[in-house]
Amino acid sequence: MSGTTTAAALRRRAAGAGANRWVVLVVLCVSLLLVAVDATVLHVAVPAVTEDLKPGAVELLWIVDAYPLVCASLLILFGTLGDRVGRRRVLLLGYTLFGVASALAAFADSAELLIAARALLGVGGAMIMPATLSILRQVFPDRRERALAIGIWSAVAAVGAAVGPLLGGFLLEHFWWGSVFLVNIPLMLVSLPVGRLLLPESKGDGSGPWDVVGALTAAAGLFAVVLGVKQLGGGETGPGTFLPLVAGVALLAVFVRRQRRRAHPLIDLRMFARPAFSTSVGCIVLAMLALVGLELIAAQYLQLVLGLSPLETGLRLLPLTVAAMAAGLAGARALRRFGPRRMVSFGFCLTAGAVVMLTAMGGQDNAPLLLGGFVLLGFGLETTLFGAYESMLSEAPQEQAGGAAAIGETSYQLGAGIGIALLGSVMNGAYAPGLAQVPGVPAPASDAAAHSLGEAYEVAARLGGPAGEALRLAARQSFVHGLHVTLLVSAGLLLAGAAMALRLPRVMQCETAPGVPSGTAPGTPSGTTPTTGSGAAPETTAKAGPGGSPAQMPAPRKAAESRGPGLRV
């Protein structure tokens, strides 16, 4: 057996049976799958919930929004708490709360109880999401393996978002609406003991007290900002929208100022001074801004313009998810070959090209165009998100992994909310003028039709005759025009993201945590090295090879140990 092969085998054995890391990844991915599915599974159940519980308009809004609002606002709180008290402990508590809340939601007999259960689900989700990424950061100290693990993790997230509506529709055809929540319980009953047995415990350095006031300030600020952004995305522009936004921004400013003054902050804001970290966070926001707004508008186009059913719409959008899965699974190899800068920039440019291609959509169905556009869109966006998440997590110190993961997930949620608000406003601004003067249609009817395409169809049905048909045709044409304008704005934002990504490092530097050789077992004392014998291969670090692709070159031991974790250029 060669010296290199012997060293590799010994390092895998030193990792405590290398397969265990991948078993841990499976457990973490199941956790993420549940959270991702629960974020979208209720959408198809809203009509059944409305018929059964008879909620008011405000109550129905909170039934849908309580989960994402609470989850987004608490990510930093629980991410940093995991760094302090133990990430596995927070994750297991999140499992428990998620299971209890699922049971409460499934058997809720009033709108108020369902809202409370959805909020409790949000608490559980906020515990689970950053913990999965921070534990993944710990159990895969070798960046090359970690990149593959993050690729699988992100592919599972894409699956969960797509499976939610399909699973919900299947369950509603055979059971009552509560079954969309009840499916979580057996999975949580399995995940809790398995996670307790297999997941390693980890935490930060634990220096100084946990800043409870700062954590609550961040939670309140994020809740207010996300609430305001969601209301803005719904077209509300009154004081009830801007007051939460202003209050949220003020609270977050107080939080930032407090963290800068504390000797032991919740989040080391100096991470944002690292170009790779801050750029990765910005890329996540821009990618999600484009993705969520485009998915929302695309779903409306497929159903209201092309007349497809919800199931047909889901199937048409499925190639986007499949392409995203493929990009996530191929991401690790692409990152090693091309480096973060080229990979993320390419992902943005590919997505922008797909968006421009989709401007050819018109009033008639063009299935090949939609298929090609959605495949490129899904592959490009997932390539971008994978590269950004991996760079952000690798740049953060291991003791700050929970806080870094929480920042990434919060950026994801804020980007999604801002995308709906911004692109929705662009869409409405381009759509409404086309209905101002439709021949034979009264001004009040035109004003009502200008709110949305669905409302325009309702107004046209009430008018009937030539006027109704003229309004319906004008609304369809205006929507397609608004869609084209929105796609072009999205393309501009994506190209701005490609330019931003040029601040990322050119190559993927494969370094482990300080003093921990590649393949060292999670929990192995820092600075210890597995005995590899005389045939041990030297540690390697990625250097630019011919054509800019990374090539493995020997690196001196002391140099590898003296540099911190993450990217360096």
UniProtKB/TrEMBL annotation:
<feature type="transmembrane region" description="Helical">
    <location>
        <begin position="210"/>
        <end position="229"/>
    </location>
</feature>
<keyword id="KW-0813">Transport</keyword>
<keyword id="KW-0046">Antibiotic resistance</keyword>
<dbReference type="InterPro" id="IPR011701">
    <property type="entry name" value="MFS"/>
</dbReference>
<feature type="transmembrane region" description="Helical">
    <location>
        <begin position="277"/>
        <end position="302"/>
    </location>
</feature>
<keyword id="KW-1133">Transmembrane helix</keyword>
<keyword id="KW-0812">Transmembrane</keyword>
<feature type="compositionally biased region" description="Low complexity">
    <location>
        <begin position="513"/>
        <end position="542"/>
    </location>
</feature>
<feature type="transmembrane region" description="Helical">
    <location>
        <begin position="482"/>
        <end position="502"/>
    </location>
</feature>
<protein>
    <submittedName>
        <fullName>MFS transporter</fullName>
    </submittedName>
</protein>
<feature type="domain" description="Major facilitator superfamily (MFS) profile">
    <location>
        <begin position="24"/>
        <end position="509"/>
    </location>
</feature>
<feature type="transmembrane region" description="Helical">
    <location>
        <begin position="369"/>
        <end position="389"/>
    </location>
</feature>
<feature type="transmembrane region" description="Helical">
    <location>
        <begin position="314"/>
        <end position="332"/>
    </location>
</feature>
<feature type="transmembrane region" description="Helical">
    <location>
        <begin position="148"/>
        <end position="168"/>
    </location>
</feature>
<dbReference type="InterPro" id="IPR036259">
    <property type="entry name" value="MFS_trans_sf"/>
</dbReference>
<dbReference type="InterPro" id="IPR020846">
    <property type="entry name" value="MFS_dom"/>
</dbReference>
<feature type="region of interest" description="Disordered">
    <location>
        <begin position="513"/>
        <end position="569"/>
    </location>
</feature>
<dbReference type="Pfam" id="PF07690">
    <property type="entry name" value="MFS_1"/>
</dbReference>
<keyword id="KW-1003">Cell membrane</keyword>
<feature type="transmembrane region" description="Helical">
    <location>
        <begin position="90"/>
        <end position="108"/>
    </location>
</feature>
<feature type="transmembrane region" description="Helical">
    <location>
        <begin position="174"/>
        <end position="198"/>
    </location>
</feature>
<keyword id="KW-0472">Membrane</keyword>
<feature type="transmembrane region" description="Helical">
    <location>
        <begin position="114"/>
        <end position="136"/>
    </location>
</feature>
<feature type="transmembrane region" description="Helical">
    <location>
        <begin position="241"/>
        <end position="256"/>
    </location>
</feature>
<feature type="transmembrane region" description="Helical">
    <location>
        <begin position="60"/>
        <end position="78"/>
    </location>
</feature>
<feature type="transmembrane region" description="Helical">
    <location>
        <begin position="22"/>
        <end position="48"/>
    </location>
</feature>
<feature type="transmembrane region" description="Helical">
    <location>
        <begin position="344"/>
        <end position="363"/>
    </location>
</feature>
